[in-house]
Design goal:
Layout lengths: L1 E5 L3 H13 L3 E6 L2 H5 L9 E5 L7 H11 L4 E6 L7 H4 L4 E4 L4 H12 L3 H9 L4 E3 L5 E3 L5 E3 L5 H12 L5 E2 H8 L5 H22 L4 E5 L2 E5 L4 E2 H14 L3 H11 L14 H24 L3 H14 L4 H13 L3 H19 L5 H18 L1
């Protein structure tokens, strides 16, 4: 195992270097100045960094966050003088942590843990076919087996920051924008510290989940590198556009009913995602309404009913779905369902909007009811 040591105290730096060497690690370099360490070209060649937390100029958490921009597969072990109760705040963002004075047995346990997850194994996993990142309904991982696996985030802020960077994937986001979004009530210094810790948490979570997605930092801005990972919302929209262009109604039907797993980040209800959520909802509604109408006119009322029912479930005050269901059920002679849909429409509009059905809907229903009366006579 190749390692680098960063500690502003000379004696502590030399002691850690000697201990690592005695336990079989190769210490490639040791730095007292965290800025000098940050500018080193060695980070892509080592497996682990042993970083002191409390250092002047740049603390260990900020250094770790920046190092992971250079070397996303790097393991970072924090070394601190805090007791183990105080250090719990840092444990969530580290591959491991060591409390000074470092004991030989504790260091050996840390090295064993790192050896179980070498850079080569992580790199090999990354080279496999990347999974799909699920954004429809909730945030998770689709590994191709039809199930969406939950991502075990360290904190809700880490989850939201990652989701936001995915949302803004086509541009680099200023760090100030992230601070204002996630910690609007916190002072600037604390917000910066929170930001660096959260970025580190995200990187650790992505590594644990086997996602080859990287969070990069440059010029005061953060951006996400998807590393070949696809987004289910993009895949769905592209497939729908192709099916519509090819006039493949069967494919459009399946994508609308089975391919649309849910609204964009629906379970999270992030306000900043509302525009994208509504854009995809409206696109789904437009395609579903047009196809349902064509199926109805083509003499396929059963398929039209399935689509109209799904429209009604997603858009309960969308009056056209009720009228479409009445017409389709009328085609197959389902009298009770026609009456039920009209009564349901009247009730929903009154309760939700304080309105009555549009005149076109009422006229159709009255004409249908009149024709039933005439037929029964």
């Amino acid at each position: 195992m190749r390692a680098i040591v960063v500690d502003d105290e000379l004696l502590a730096m030399e002691s850690m270097s000697r201990m690592l060497t005695r336990h079989g690690a190769e210490v490639v370099a040791a730095f007292q100045n965290p800025l000098e360490a940050l500018n080193s070209e060695l980070w892509c060649e080592v497996d682990a960094a042993f970083v002191d937390i409390s250092m002047p100029g740049m603390n260990g958490i900020e250094l770790a966050a920046r190092l992971q921009s250079k070397a996303p597969l790097l393991h970072v072990v924090f070394v601190t003088a805090f007791d183990q109760y105080a250090v719990k705040a840092f444990e969530i963002a580290a591959a491991d942590y060591l409390v000074k004075p470092v004991r030989a047995a504790r260091l050996e346990a840390t090295l064993e843990r790192l050896r179980l997850h070498p850079r080569q194994a992580v790199a090999a996993a990354v080279q496999e076919a990347p999974p799909t990142l699920a954004c429809m309904h909730d945030l998770g991982i689709d590994r191709g087996d039809g199930r969406v696996e939950e991502i075990l985030w360290r904190t809700s802020k880490a989850k939201e920051m990652f989701a936001y960077l995915i949302y803004e994937r086509d541009r680099a986001v200023p760090k100030e924008q992230l601070q204002d979004l996630l910690w609007p009530e916190v002072d600037a210094d604390r917000a910066v510290a929170n930001l660096h810790t959260t970025v580190y948490q995200i990187r650790q979570t992505l590594k644990s989940a086997g996602l080859p997605v990287h969070i990069l930092y440059a010029g005061g801005r953060y951006r996400v590198d998807l590393g070949g990972v696809k987004l289910d919302c993009e895949q769905w929209e592209q497939a729908l556009d192709r099916a519509v262009a090819d006039m493949d109604e069967g494919r459009v039907f399946r994508l609308l009913l089975d391919g649309y797993r849910g609204d964009y980040l629906q379970s999270e209800a992030y306000l900043w995602a509302e525009n994208e959520r509504e854009r995809l909802r409206i696109k789904w509604l437009q395609c579903a309404s047009e196809l349902a109408s064509r199926l109805e006119q083509s003499g396929l009322p059963a398929d039209a009913i399935r689509l109209y029912q799904e429209i009604q479930k997603r858009f309960p005050v969308w009056e056209s779905s009720y009228l479409g269901l009445m017409r389709a059920h009328g085609q197959i002679g389902n009298v009770l369902e026609v009456k039920s849909q009209y009564a349901k429409l009247v009730r929903v509009l009154e309760e939700e909007l304080g309105m009555q059905p549009e005149r076109e809907t009422t006229r159709w229903y009255e004409a249908w009811a009149a024709s039933r009366s005439y037929t029964s006579e």
